[in-house]
Amino acid sequence: MDKAIDKFTVPAEELNKQKEYTELVSTVLKSRFTEGKPKAFVHTYGCQGNVADGEKLKGLLYSMGFEFCLSPEHADLVLYNTCAIREHAEDRVFGNVGALKPIKKKNPDMIIALCGCMTQQQTVADKLKESYPFVDIVFGTHVAHRLPEFVYRSLCLGKRVFETADSDGNIVEGLPIKRDGTFRAWVPVMYGCNNFCSYCIVPYVRGRERSRDFDTVVEEVRGLVADGYKEINLLGQNVNSYNKNLPEEKQFPALLRAINDIDGDFIIRFMTSHPRDCTHELIEAMAQCKKVAKHLHLPVQSGNDRVLKEMNRHYSREKYLSLIDYAYELMPELSITSDIIVGFPGETYEEFCDTLSLVERVKYTSLFTFIFSPRKGTKAYDMDDPVSRKEKGVWFKELTDLQEKIAGERTARMKGRSYRVLVEEKAKTEGFLSGRTQGNVIIEFEGDESLIGSFADVKVTNPRTWIVYGELV
């Protein structure tokens, strides 16, 4: 194993210790719940990385003897896996935690636990300790593997647990996973971030960049494919940084090629890509690997060089567009999506217009658009921000109107064409199913729900702006 990976890897002795706590908790729960198993309610907020973390937390709880329920009212343990990307996300969590107080009053033995990015912030942990005395367990992103220990301390010793020490982060292999789905899987390949974009809290709560072992990732995917999974989503705060200090044969493009070579009928997706580390080698791997979806999520955030510099993004408009041009050259049908922040502190309308012109040039399939939201603890939080939110809202509408026009033109060109779609779920319309094309466009069509979890060929008959409708070929 590479020394850089070994530096972050949690030692086997620590994991064995947690297995001992798992057995202790299991024994206690069996003695207390003689009829049926204790129930846990787990809710994850935020990104796909959090979803992957939540599946491991559920795996640990399942190993301890819990089964899962769909509401806190029926739970013996409630776990909120939180997100800190925006302030309103934190406000929502605090509101939901407050709503647990009367439930715990009826069931005083219920354990309430919070973890994730939000709780890694010391100010949040302190607020929970002082203002929410009915919360039993609070732990940060770097100690999630110690959940069995925390449950034991709360369950058997009656002590509140607060574990939010700062850390460069870790890599934990071998944890049990209770996956939410049977045909789509989330596979983290790296954790943390070294970019320190001036508006982003992630590096402060997720730690430094650290990559999982190349062969370990490939073998995990091989096992998932053998188990029938049809879509593999490779995750990282910046997947392009995967093993970037190692030789090319161990970096992210090579990982895509190695997974593409696994026998089986499946599709590979990945996110999120940072333009700073996006390379021609990655684009070439996408183009040459048949199983890699021809969809690239490449957040630009702004189309103006001065704003990009203030954001600490480490690339220029010209570099970004050169990557886009190369990608379209190799994959003319490529679907590109992006993130854009409207109204970054100090941004002028003229600079915002540079973003509009970039969007017009790239022709994104869709955008995730946000009005700037200040996050305490980031550099942008203290920047002068003279433009009113009302004015930013006007800019925001101008951007979304432009993207709606572009998306409508793009989907209109899909009419009459057939696409291979992974069928994901029943649609809201009775008798219809919903899936996604390789380019991440939602398509709904009439079909039997036995198709869910398999691939189907669907011909587009009625394209709308954001969803297209079709029929089975």
How would you portray this structure in words?
- The protein is α/β, with parallel strands linked by helices and 473 residues long.
- It folds into four domains: 3-163, Response regulator (Rossmann fold), CATH 3.40.50; 181-293, Transcription Regulator spoIIAA, CATH 3.30.750; 296-413, Transcription Regulator spoIIAA (2-Layer Sandwich); 418-472, Beta Barrel (OB fold (Dihydrolipoamide Acetyltransferase, E2P)), CATH 2.40.50.140.
- It has helices at residues 3-8, 12-32, 48-64, 87-98, 101-106, 122-131, 147-157, 202-206, 214-226, 252-260, 280-288, 305-311, 317-330, 349-362, 389-412, and strands spanning 39-44, 67-68, 77-82, 111-116, 137-139, 161-163, 184-188, 190-191, 210-211, 231-235, 267-271, 295-297, 335-342, 366-371, 418-426, 432-436, 442-446, 455-463, 467-472.
- The N and C termini lie far apart (48 Å).
Short structural description:
The chain is α/β, with parallel strands linked by helices.
Unreliable runs: none
Q: Major sheet: order of its strands? A: 2-1-3-4-5-6
Text of the CATH class of the largest domain: Alpha Beta
Shape, per Cα inertia axes: globular
- CATH architectural arrangement of the largest domain: 3-Layer(aba) Sandwich
* Distance linking N and C termini: 48 Å
Question: Mean pLDDT, as a whole number?
Answer: 95
